[in-house]
Design a protein that fits this description.
This protein is α+β, with helices and mostly antiparallel strands and about 160 residues long. Helix content is about 25%, strand content about 35%. The protein is built from four helices and seven strands. Strand 3 and strand 4 form a beta hairpin. The protein is globular and about 45 Å long.
Amino acid sequence: MLPPGDDVDRIMAIMEAAFDPAFGEAWTRRQVEDSLLTGHCHYIIVTIDGQISTDKHPVESSSQPAGFALSRTGFGEEELLLFAVSPEFRNKGLGAAMLRELDRTVRERGVTRILLEMRDGNPAESLYRSFGFEPIGRRPKYYRTPDGTRIDAITFGCDLQ
């Protein structure tokens, strides 16, 4: 089922603000909508005042959205596909609030492991590590910058106890 259009609007506004176009990591609206149609993808939105809204528990809020997470469940694992906080709201605990909500909701779905992949040097690495994520793999030269520089992608995993 497709989420409310205003939630997709919120996700897209955050994505536009948060993802550096130099790395080509942002998704199109169609990609977000198509992923959520599968029934195995889930989203979390956090507002600037820390309110959490999810695909299963949407919250009506007039507060400005500040961050979102998009994930996919399969075979007892959750893959964190996209995770972003708008630059002006970073380092205020909103990313941590989303990761706590992700942990809570994936456990409800019976997930035992969360995976994510990110560009080497991504400043969010310290946040992920603080939640127990550890590097488990590397894709050499996976990302390309506009000047042609290649950057590794690192896969992280977090086993849930």
